[in-house]
Specification:
The complex is a heterodimer. Helix content of chain A is about 40%, strand content about 10%. Chain A has 27 helices and 18 strands. Chain A is globular. Chain A starts with a strand and ends in an 11-residue tail after the last helix. Helix content of chain B is about 35%, strand content about 15%. In chain B, strands 4-3-2-1-7-6-5 form a seven-stranded antiparallel β-sheet. In chain B, strands 10-11-14-12-13 form a five-stranded mixed β-sheet. In chain B, strand 3 and strand 4 form a beta hairpin. Chain B is globular. The N terminus and C terminus of chain B are likely disordered. Classes of the chains: A alpha+beta, B alpha+beta. At the A-B interface, helix 11, helix 22, helix 24, helix 25 and helix 27 of A face helix 6, helix 7, helix 8, helix 9 and helix 19 of B. Chain A: It comes from Oncorhynchus kisutch (Coho salmon). Chain A: InterPro entries: MTMR12-like_C, Myotubularin, Myotubularin-like_Pase_dom, PH-like_dom_sf, Prot-tyrosine_phosphatase-like. Chain A: Belongs to the protein-tyrosine phosphatase family. Non-receptor class myotubularin subfamily.
């Protein structure tokens, strides 16, 4: 039930007791309140007094809302307070802006009393929420502050109490500080308790904004369908397998979730997996195909079956599955239990929670205080090391596939966390298709969405007490790893850093079906149940890939990387003659295993080989030895070095350098809101915008030449850009100075005052280590002085 | 390799074996020499004009990355060159002898174990080299002696290679910096500031340049009096003036206050003249040292400007540590990056070297200076002697304030002026040709400064006309002794040793091949003050310098961004040309749709581009 001002709004008709939250605000100046029940679709008869109260409460705020940001349909204002002071984050002077603070079913919103400034920020405006809006599920922590103390609010407050200052830390790392001491006591109390209630208290999935949003927005589905491969049909899977020349079996028996609601609707298993194998252990232990290497070997992932000592059945089943995987190519299989070698989801959460604190800056003094210990703090929180471990594991798997041509089965308890991280990374490294924008989105669909990553549990948007344990930023970890790869091999990726940052933000915008569910079955049942149009078609919600929901075309231009060039198309007739089968270019010579032995030998020796390999690997799996032994890491190092000596092909195999200095902090994502570290007029964007600019010119020239009917020489086709770029956007503002926080922070706060680090001396630890040196004179002693 | 960049010696005879060996060394070495003649000549090592071969020898290079490599080492009067015989691709080393800091014998004739007998060479450029030789017959004696002699020529009564070099360049680097011209560029002299030749014979201050700019109102007599109160006579003189607000950066050494807290009326009045010149209420004195050190300096006769004595001045300490701390810091850094990059807890290890912390302090000190100047207040910067930290601060602040110094030639002027001219003790800090590797005067102050510049170019990739290659080249030749640029401690010593007539300037090399050092992204913006962010969040270890010997660090000839940009530029030019051709041939009326719009501009490509911009 949704509680607003202590009044329960309940649909009275037909004892359908669903909360009434649907309020349609027409965009025209006139406001019309249409209150209807979501489930029974009947206008709700509210007591007139309630109606009056509701409209009075809402009217003022809705007016404000529509004047500042485009009101999202289906949005309802729960409570508001005026004369709230929003502190400007970047100084201690307690200066700020007055305005109205609102809490709706979508966001916490601050509407400044000052006239909105129409500036360049508009170009990269998010259509769903503005710079002073916080989607409810983007709220990370709320602190109550009084004077100089700060207290974490955990919900369940004593009535009639509220702090004078409210600090909101967001999951996209913004920090908001509001003073409530200038508002009417009653308002202040209500807004504080309202925000705490809606942001921190447990709620049902149906209360997430997506459902009211989708009911009121008609979304053109056709547009997206033709772009990103959604992996929600047999065709999508078949096609991807064909593309990689895989030779496995597409399973469509679960299309109505008859096998198991936990299994994907469609999936692919090795040929030798029988029908009855599919249903055992609720899909645990079932090797799910991820990707096939051109040599024929493939990557599979599975949820491991907990082995019970006395019971021999799962073991036999597991052996059978392993044999099936081995059968896929040359009777070889390597297993990798990620639970043994990679951090757990709890480790990931703990580390990230420590890491993010470095960027949630309440005041600059604190920031500069922490600056001197920055590197060791970063080291101690372990986040970069977790990133490194994931990348290293992926490189190990790549080595098995690329160098040894062995099938690989990765497993972990649920089979949908680190398995997703590693399998997606492996595919990014090996397959240039996934480094294109659409390819990447398809990869996320395949491995994460269809792959059944429990997005809902991992993000715990619902603040369920029993899900606190399962919360973990696993998908963000994956994006972090992708960022590292992209940082090291920029020109290999069609999408930009900004794209990744925006994608990481979108996880917390509760509008996209992509991130709201735990698996296919979950998604299907809920969307069906919520559908307003009888039971036939499920509710049509946008996915995160419908970028136009958030950004207009020009802003979306910033998602493409101006450094990316498509693979130069070589003369196919020439290529075909010597490389008939493998279109992907290899950076390493294939090992002896690659060419299959003669057919006869193959058949005769098959069983023997299978036995040897199968048993060997299996025992390894049973013992689950730590693969983090020095041997492995030195082998990975050799593999990397061998790859490194070859000329770099951005359309071939990519490996990350894992040395200390190479794993870095994702500056754009983490530092973008911190004013003191914005490099005004600098940062990598200064260079990239010049590339974009010239790219725009080249494109325009091409268009002109095309109009002349001039065919361009083929040797330039590679460099010839096809994708739309950010050129237009940046060129339009070339007069404006960009900062390292581009495009997230507008230049409105442009100040010529440099940030001067405070508290330098106290923290410099030189005295301890070299006290005698520090005290010495630069040149000679007293004798040299006059 | 780094040392074959100059186009000037590409035309030279390809290798060294052409000269008869006997001419180079005595009969004692005859046997070895004959043996070496049997070896394949090293085709890819070309000698500099004036460079002479001294010895070559079969040797094993203990490469920290690829293990022991058999090969041959060549030693000339300029470099040590090694090429492996069997590794594929061949491993080569090309080390100017100037970069060698220390040569030691490793193991003895009776040492056990493979490759335990040989030489251990410590370099000034962040690497160490190990060579192993056959244990029998004192096989390392000759090479050790020769290396020791030629790596440290000054300790052996020999000339530095810069004096032997016969290199010729199209450009004369010595003419890059003309003090009067530079002052004139700044709008000096004017009615507040005058040029004085009082130091023409280095009589006022032997470590200062001959031409100085001082307050107009200060007489020569005043200068002489102030001179007695400043350490080593380094009086406050103008380094830079802000064109609009006339605020100045002055530099000097510490006042000789001493334990008794001496005062000097002339010095006080002189500083007030500096303040007065642009009519601001307070003069800010930046003392680069930590306040504790400044206080401690009183014991040795130095000190700082006290509040009572200098009433119109505020004193700010910038907490930058001394040369010894910096030396140890870089030593620690080398320990964690060479030969292998520290694996566990890399970031904590990096922090424990404090190197980036020091960089941060230097940069933030310079930001404060630049900020004061922008606000219209004149500043005086000093440390103890005013030739280390002071040079770092003034030159960095000038780089932030004045876009001229961010050009290729402007940067050369900045170095010539603030570092070379004002007597940064290069000879002592680097120890050119000197065997005393443990000399306490050595310190990487200039390396640290170049690192700060690199951090700035990193943060503002379009603001500098020069690229990273220039910075690395400067550091390479800081040690190499191939050019005269960084030799000696001060102008007076350079004059005595006729440096400018007898050696070649590094800028001759650079300016003969400017495009090699140009940053394609450079976008000139005059009057723009650059404030880098002096936060550890943005400071990075300069991997491509400090870890460049590690093959795992991918050394790209060009960054991918740069490469792509240059590709696109070429493509644009090609299309433009094509379009022009088409338009010329299309002058017939039937294709007028395009010609109509662009014909007026077609002749000039630049205008044409502007025109093309409009569709956006």
């Amino acid at each position: 039930m949704i509680e607003t001002f202590g009044i329960k709004l309940i649909c009275s008709k037909n004892s359908c007791l669903s909360p009434v939250v649907c309020l349609v605000v027409s965009v025209s100046c006139r406001l019309c309140l249409v209150v209807s029940c979501r489930l029974c679709l009947s206008p709700v008869c509210l007591l007139s007094s309630v109606c009056l109260l509701l409209s009075v409460c809402l009217l003022s705020s809705v007016c404000l809302l529509s004047s500042v940001s485009v009101p999202s349909t289906g949005e309802v204002v729960f409570c508001s307070a005026s004369t709230v002071l929003k502190y400007t984050q970047d100084d201690l002077s307690q200066r700020g802006v007055f305005g109205v603070l609102l809490c709706t079913n979508f966001r916490v919103s601050f509407v400044s009393d000052e006239a909105p400034t129409e500036e360049m920020g508009q170009l990269f405006k998010n259509k769903l929420y503005g710079e002073n809006d916080i989607p409810l599920s983007c709220v990370d922590n709320i602190y109550g502050g009084s004077e100089d103390k700060r207290k974490l609010i955990t919900g369940g407050l004593v009535k009639n109490k509220y702090p004078s200052k409210m600090i909101i830390h967001c999951k996209d790392l913004r920090v908001f500080q509001f003073s409530l001491s200038f508002s009417k006591e009653e308002d202040a109390k209500k807004i504080f308790q309202g925000i705490v209630h809606h942001c921190l208290e447990p709620k049902s999935l149906r209360c997430l904004f997506a459902f009211s949003y989708c009911e009121n927005t008609s979304y053109p589905e056709a547009q997206r369908k033709k772009q990103t491969v959604m992996f929600d049909s047999v065709e999508d899977w078949t096609q991807d397998m064909k593309r990689t020349k895989g030779n496995c079996r597409v399973v469509s028996e679960n299309s109505n979730f008859e096998l198991s609601p936990k299994l994907p609707q469609y999936f692919i298993v090795p040929k030798n997996v029988s029908d009855e194998d599919l249903t055992k252990y609720q899909g645990k232990g079932l090797p799910m195909w991820c990707w096939s290497h051109h040599s024929g070997c493939a990557l599979f992932k599975t949820a491991s079956i907990p082995l019970v000592q006395e019971d021999n059945v799962p073991q036999t089943y597991m052996e059978k599955m392993l044999t099936a995987v081995a059968h896929n190519h040359l009777y070889s299989v390597k297993t990798e239990d990620l639970s043994d070698t990679l951090p757990t989801v709890q480790d990931i959460l703990l580390s990230y929670n420590r890491f993010k604190q470095f960027f949630l800056i309440d005041n600059t003094t604190e920031f500069w205080m922490s600056d001197m210990k920055w590197f060791s703090s970063l080291d101690n929180c372990g986040w970069l090391d977790i990133i490194r471990q994931c990348l290293q594991k992926a490189v190990e798997v790549v080595e098995s596939l690329e160098k040894e041509n062995t099938n690989v089965l990765i497993m972990e308890e649920g089979g949908s966390d680190l398995c997703c991280v590693v399998s997606s990374l492996v595919q990014l490294m090996l397959d240039p298709y996934y480094r294109t924008l659409l390819g990447f989105q398809s990869l996320v669909q395949k491995e994460w969405v269809a792959g059944g990553h429990a997005f809902l549990d991992r993000s715990n948007h619902l603040h369920l007490k029993d899900k606190v344990e399962s919360q973990s930023p696993v998908f963000l970890l994956f994006l972090e790893c992708v960022w590292q790869l992209q940082q090291q091999h920029g020109p290999a990726f069609q999408f930009s850093e900004t794209y990744l940052t925006v994608l990481s933000d979108s996880i917390h915008v509760p509008v996209f079906t992509t991130f709201l569910f735990n698996n296919d079955g979950h998604r299907d049942s809920l969307l069906r149940a919520e559908s307003p149009h009888t039971q036939r078609s499920p509710l049509n919600c946008p996915t995160v890939w419908d970028w136009s929901v958030q950004f207009d075309c020009k802003a979306q231009d910033l998602f493409t990387n101006p450094l990316y060039t498509e693979k130069p198309k070589q003369d196919t007739s020439v290529r075909k003659s010597y490389r008939p089968r493998h279109l992907r270019q290899l950076s390493l010579p294939s090992s002896a295993f690659k060419t299959p032995p003669k057919k006869g030998f193959f058949k005769d020796e098959a069983d023997n080989l299978k036995k040897i390999l199968g048993v060997k690997r299996l025992s390894r799996w049973m013992l689950s030895p730590s693969s983090d032994s020095p041997q492995t890491s030195s082998s990975v190092r050799e593999f990397y070095e061998a790859w490194q000596t070859k000329p770099l092909d951005y359309h071939g195999l990519l490996l990350p350098c894992l040395d200390g200095p190479s794993i870095r902090v994702w500056m754009q994502r983490y530092l973008r809101w911190i004013h003191d570290v914005q490099i005004l007029g600098g940062g990598p964007v200064a260079m990239l915008s010049k590339v974009s600019e010239i790219l725009g010119e080249v494109q325009e020239l091409q268009r002109q030449l095309d109009r002349h009917g001039c065919t361009l020489t083929s040797n330039h086709k590679g460099a010839r850009p096809r994708a739309k770029t950010a050129a237009a956007v940046i060129a339009a503002r070339s007069s404006v100075r960009l900062s390292s926080s581009f495009p997230f922070v507008t230049s409105r706060n442009w100040s010529f005052k440099p940030a001067i680090p405070t508290s330098l001396l106290q923290s410099l630890m030189v005295t301890g280590m070299a006290g005698n040196l520090a005290d010495r004179e630069d040149d000679g002693g007293p004798e040299s002085l006059v | 390799t780094k040392f074959s960049q100059a186009s000037s010696f590409h035309s030279r005879p390809k290798h060294l074996l052409s000269s008869p060996p006997k001419k180079i060394w005595g009969p004692t070495f005859g046997y070895k020499c004959l043996e070496s003649l049997k070896m394949e000549p090293l085709a890819d090592c070309s000698l500099l004009p004036g460079e002479e071969r001294i010895i070559d020898k079969d040797i094993i290079y203990i490469c920290p990355f690829s293990g022991a490599l058999k090969g041959k080492v060549f030693i000339t009067n300029y470099r040590l060159y090694f090429k492996s015989a069997d590794a594929d691709p061949a491993v080569t080393l090309d080390v100017p002898l100037g970069a060698i800091g220390r040569v030691e014998k490793m193991g003895g004739a009776s040492s056990r174990g493979e490759n335990s007998y040989g030489l251990d060479i410590t370099c000034k450029d962040m690497r160490n080299l190990r060579f192993a030789l056959k244990q029998e017959g004192h096989s390392r004696r000759d090479i050790f002696d020769i290396l020791f002699k030629y790596a440290f020529p000054l300790s052996h009564g020999l000339l530095l290679f810069a004096y032997l070099s016969q290199e010729k360049f199209e450009e004369n680097g010595w003419s890059v910096y003309k003090p009067m011209e530079e002052f004139r560029r700044q709008g000096l002299p004017n009615d507040k500031w005058r040029v004085t030749f009082i130091n023409a014979n280095y009589e006022l201050c032997d470590t200062y340049p001959t031409i100085l700019v001082v307050p107009f109102k200060a007489t020569e007599e005043d200068l002489r009096k102030v001179c007695t109160f400043r350490s080593r006579g380094r009086i406050p003189v103008l380094s830079w003036i802000h064109r609009e607000n006339q605020a100045v950066i002055c530099r000097c050494s510490q006042p000789l206050v001493g334990m008794s807290g001496k005062r000097n009326k002339d010095d006080e009045r002189y500083l007030d003249l500096i303040r007065e010149a642009n009519g601001t209420a307070k003069l800010t004195i930046y003392d680069a040292r930590p306040s504790v050190n400044a206080v401690a300096n009183k014991a040795t006769g130095g000190g700082y400007e006290g509040d009572d004595a200098y009433q119109n001045a505020e004193l700010v300490f910038l907490d930058i540590h001394n040369i010894h701390v910096m030396r140890e810091s870089l030593k620690k850094l080398k320990d964690i990056v060479y030969p292998n990059v520290e694996e566990s807890h890399w970031l904590s290890s990096l922090e424990s070297t404090h190197w980036l912390e020091h960089i941060k302090l230097v940069i933030s000190g310079a930001i404060q200076v630049a900020d004061k100047i922008s606000g219209g207040n004149s500043v005086v910067v000093h440390c103890s002697d005013g030739w280390d930290r002071t040079a770092q601060l003034t030159s960095l602040a000038m780089l932030m304030l004045d876009s001229h110094y961010r050009t290729l030639r402007g940067f050369q002027v900045l170095l010539e002026k603030e570092w070379i001219g004002f007597g940064h003790k290069f000879a002592n800090r680097i120890g050119h040709g000197d065997k005393n590797h443990a000399d306490q005067d050595r310190s990487p102050i200039f390396v640290q400064f170049i690192d700060c510049v690199w951090q700035m170019t990193k943060q503002f990739p379009t603001a500098f006309e020069f690229n990273e290659r220039l910075l690395v080249t400067i550091l390479d030749h800081l040690f190499s002794c191939r050019f005269g640029t960084f030799l000696y401690n001060c102008e007076r010593a350079r004059d005595t040793n006729e440096l400018r007539s007898k050696t070649v300037s590094l800028w001759s090399l650079v300016n003969s091949d400017l495009s090699f050092y140009q940053n394609p992204f450079y976008t000139p913006e005059s009057n723009r003050v650059l404030y880098p962010v002096a936060s550890m969040r943005h400071l990075e270890l300069w991997v491509t310098y400090y870890i460049r010997w590690n093959p795992r660090i991918r050394q790209q000839q060009q960054s991918p961004v740069e490469q792509r940009y240059i590709e696109l530029l070429a493509l644009r030019d090609e299309y433009l040309k094509k379009l022009e051709e088409l338009q010329l041939s299309d002058s017939s009326p039937n294709s007028s749709h395009l010609s109509n719009s662009s014909t007026p501009n077609a002749a000039s490509p630049t205008q044409h581009i502007t025109h093309l911009h409009t569709p956006f």
